[in-house]
Design brief:
single chain; about 270 residues; mainly alpha; elongated
Amino acid sequence: MAETSLWRRAWRAILAHALLRWESALTIALAIVAIGLFPRPFPLWRWWYWLVLFAAAEALIIYTSVTDARTGERVISDMLRQRFNPMRLSRAGLRRQVEQALEYRQGMERQITRTRRGMLRDRLTETATRVDDWLAQICKLAERLDQLGGDALIQKDTQETPEAITRYRARLRSSQDEQMRRQLEQLLASKEAQQANLAELGRTMERGQLQLENTVSDLATIYSQFALLEARDVDSGRMTRLNEDIDGQVAALADVVQTLDELYKRSAEA
């Protein structure tokens, strides 16, 4: 099986869950009591027989936990929500978009765990890894939009910069001092550049919001295609195209995030 880092962490989490089950704790407690109080309940019995007996019981508990599909789904669902936590976002609309994207990813995980081990399951797992990268970019874009939308300094500059430009232009028209005029021209140029950057940042944020909505809609389409994949699609162009579409979405979102970061940096430096 092609394992992802998420799956490796999930397997360790499932194993920890098995060891912490009440049945596991009871087995260990009974083993201690049996060895301590009844080391030889029968003439032919040896104390270490208890170890073998309870070790077999513990192994059965671990096996049922590891192989239980519902346990795996629940553990991976919890891990996804810890990694891509919508509650970090302050704006309800952005939280809703990330929540919806998470639901599609969890649906894919259910599809994987209910698929028999083999080539199809391996390829579905590989595709899910790409979707994790997609989710990471969705969350990154949502976090940038949330951060920038609530940035008090950006809001303050957006409101005050036009007023400052108006004041500087008025002073420039009335000033007769050449040195003062040069200083005012420099200030005016700086404020106009800041205003242009802020305007471009605002437009990019609007485009980013639309792209976030579109990419979640595209994820829904990918999910429906993912659910219909069958064994005969493993070596077909259908799965290849699906993975290429996902990679394209990841790259497009990364470009938007990078543009937002650059514009924010320029507007802060202006």
